């Protein structure tokens, strides 16, 4: 009776599978990527049914051969043939070491106190290795043209943890005056045989962000180039007076930084001010060259190991020695974060601020 019951169950199972295949027989037109896998599942389950119906060794061997043939046929089928025509230029594959494109990203927008709007942009270098340089011009442009020139030309590869770990968020920002707050600003990048354009605009509330306090009082850190000078507490940042140097001669770049979080109002906080992290990056420069920095990256955790996790909240001077191998005009970006705080993380596009240093390098 058990054998009869098993055969009957398998017959019903096979009938259900047959109905499934009939119901999805047009999947080659509607869902080409999933179709082969559906067929493979049907083949595998039917094969299991055959194994359950008989323990004959020869039949089992034939079934295994059937499974192998199905898998081989699926593997042999070119993936491009399974894709709709309009997607065949974008095959599913691992990222190449080089030759891939750099994609611009719109990270979000902020309504400022004076009703101006800040549009925040980042990028993702899709190569696994190396750096891509795209000079400002037809292949790297902001429109309207009056906003052109703030974007990076140097695009490193990133492999961070977290969501979209290859993306560099908040590399720069464009500020629209209140009377132009509805203007759409586009960033276009052409590289690796692809052209990408991303619009920055205020029409989507899902992209709206804030300069205000985070859940436990964190705010974007402050940066100044002199203690009594202009202050950056934002992604758009401030610009220092240009520095000058010659090829091979180190130049000192310095700034004052501060964690300005307002954490006293949140009783769960045991630390009122955290050690900040700093990173000096090449933002713009001649194609194919990059300066060398001393202490290019010092994380907040590294500073906490030396001085304790809790900071005084006072201004701290940070410096680097930059050495250039080629003459030209460069822009160096200083990014300052307070990622030691629980409510400040890179994936949340908070909390860090930018500041920029132009450097003119003579031969």
SSE arrangement:
Elements: H1 2-23, H2 27-30, H3 32-53, H4 57-76, H5 79-82, E1 102-111, E2 117-125, E3 132-133, E4 140-143, E5 154-155, E6 167-176, E7 185-191, E8 194-200, E9 208-209, E10 222-224, E11 231-232, E12 243-246, E13 251-258, E14 277-284, E15 292-293, E16 297-298, H6 300-307, E17 316-323, E18 328-337, E19 352-362
Parallel strand pairs: 1-9, 12-19
Antiparallel strand pairs: 1-2, 2-6, 3-5, 4-7, 7-8, 10-11, 10-13, 13-17, 14-16, 14-18, 15-17, 18-19
Helix pairs in contact: 1-3, 3-4
What does this structure look like?
The protein is of the alpha+beta class and 363 residues long. The chain has three domains: 2-87, no CATH class; 94-209, Immunoglobulin-like (Sandwich); 213-363, Immunoglobulin-like (Sandwich). It has six helices and 19 strands. It has a five-stranded antiparallel beta sheet with strand order 11-10-13-17-15, with no helix packed on it. Strands 12-19-18-14-16 form a five-stranded mixed beta sheet. Strands 6-2-1-9 form a four-stranded mixed beta sheet, with no helix packed on it. The radius of gyration is 28 Å and the shape is globular. The termini are far apart. 29% of the residues are buried. Residues 1-7 and 17-55 have low confidence and may be disordered.
């Amino acid at each position: 009776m058990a054998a009869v019951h098993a055969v009957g169950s398998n017959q019903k199972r096979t009938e259900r599978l047959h109905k499934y295949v009939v119901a999805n027989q047009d999947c080659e037109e509607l869902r080409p990527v999933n179709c082969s896998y559906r067929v493979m599942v049907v083949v595998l389950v039917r094969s299991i049914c055959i194994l359950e119906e008989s323990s004959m060794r020869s039949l089992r061997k034939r079934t295994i051969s059937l499974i192998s043939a199905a898998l081989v046929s699926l593997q042999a089928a070119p993936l491009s043939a399974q894709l709709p025509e309009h997607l065949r230029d974008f095959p599913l594959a691992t990222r190449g070491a080089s030759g891939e494109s750099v994609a611009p990203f719109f990270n979000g927008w902020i309504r400022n106190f004076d009703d101006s709007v800040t549009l925040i942009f980042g990028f993702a270098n899709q190569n696994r290795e190396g750096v891509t340089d795209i000079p400002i011009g037809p292949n790297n442009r902001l429109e309207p043209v009056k906003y052109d020139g703030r974007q990076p030309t140097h695009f490193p590869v990133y492999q961070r943890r977290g969501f979209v770990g290859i993306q560099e968020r908040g590399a720069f920002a464009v500020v629209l005056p209140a009377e132009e707050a509805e203007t759409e600003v586009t960033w276009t990048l052409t590289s690796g045989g692809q052209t990408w354009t991303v619009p920055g605009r205020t029409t989507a509330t899902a992209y709206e962000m804030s300069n205000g306090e985070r859940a436990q009082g964190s705010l974007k850190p402050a940066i100044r180039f002199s203690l009594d000078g202009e202050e950056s507490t934002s992604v758009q940042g401030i610009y220092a007076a240009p520095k000058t140097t010659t090829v091979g001669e180190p130049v000192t770049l310095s700034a004052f930084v501060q964690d300005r979080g307002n954490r006293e109002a949140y009783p769960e906080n045991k630390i009122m001010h955290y050690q900040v992290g700093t990173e000096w990056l090449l933002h713009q420069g001649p194609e194919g060259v990059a300066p060398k920095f001393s202490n290019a990256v010092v994380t907040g955790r590294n500073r906490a190991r030396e001085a304790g996790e809790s900071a005084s909240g006072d201004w701290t001077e940070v410096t680097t020695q930059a050495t250039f191998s080629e003459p030209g005009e460069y822009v160096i970006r200083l990014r300052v974060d307070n990622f030691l705080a629980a409510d400040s993380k890179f994936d949340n596009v908070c909390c860090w601020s930018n500041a920029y240093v132009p450097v003119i390098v003579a031969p």
